Inverse folding.
């Protein structure tokens, strides 16, 4: 007669998680299994399409923003450079205090 002390883990059958899940699916009717499989397929395709659209949308948004904003940034930089040159010219012509007093 076997007791708990005689029990070893080697006596247990090796079963992977995939095998266990496959065995659990057999307790559901075929129609439910098919419906769940179709639902998962539709969700997978939908997520792939949404991911593709979001990538395209992000690309369009950022490339448009760069094209639209870059000229404005260049103009601001040019304006600042012109102001700095005017201040340097005024300082050279009228002295160090003239550039500050405007």
């Amino acid at each position: 007669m076997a007791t708990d002390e005689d029990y070893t883990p080697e006596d247990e059958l090796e079963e992977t998680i995939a095998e266990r899940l496959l065995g659990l699916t057999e307790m559901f009717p075929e129609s439910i299994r098919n419906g769940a499989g179709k639902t998962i397929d539709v969700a997978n395709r939908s997520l792939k399409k949404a991911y593709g659209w979001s990538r395209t949308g992000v690309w369009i948004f950022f490339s448009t923003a760069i094209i639209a904003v870059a000229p404005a940034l260049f103009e601001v930089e040019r304006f600042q450079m012109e102001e700095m040159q005017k201040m340097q010219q005024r300082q050279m012509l009228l002295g160090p205090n003239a550039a500050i007093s405007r």
Observations:
- The first helix runs from residue 17 to 25.
- The mean pLDDT is 86.
